[in-house]
Structure prediction request, 174 residues.
Amino acid sequence: MTKHPWSQLFQQTTWTIPLLISFLAWPTLAQFDTNSVTPLKESDRRFMNQQRSRVDTLARRHLGMWIRGQTNNDLIILQKLLDQHLAKSSDKKLLQAMGVVLGDLYVRELGVHWVIYRDKHGRSRALQWKSNEKLLFPVTMISRRVEAGIQVDVKSIHQKGLNILRPLVKQARD
Prediction:
């Protein structure tokens, strides 16, 4: 009769079984996982301002244009930064900074607000309408596509975000 390799381990160590039982009794991480939405902290605001500034500086230097908070202007700038390869797929921080600029357009257009979303994967900046549970994550809307090698149409991405957020805003106003 052949013994299972684990049976030898259990027989050779007196501490293995109590240790195994204690691990089985310990709650899993998923049980501790509580998703939460909280307001931005001052440090988040400063970081996001630095990101906006980085995009604006790049646009001023290379395009002679600046971020104005005007939808058409800012979408053109974001697209030109991509098309002229001023934002490289390897520069994740810049691509995510562009996502902040994109998110700011939704804030101005629809009145949504920036929040911090926490889950088992970490913390992310997201947009929320009032206290609605549905969130939009514009910070990665550009970066994930660029990193995947997908040709990015910034106006199309912007429109997709509007299509997600507008019904929430309309429903709350009706």
Remarks:
- The helical segments are 5-12, 16-25, 29-32, 42-63, 71-83, 92-110, 143-147, 154-173.
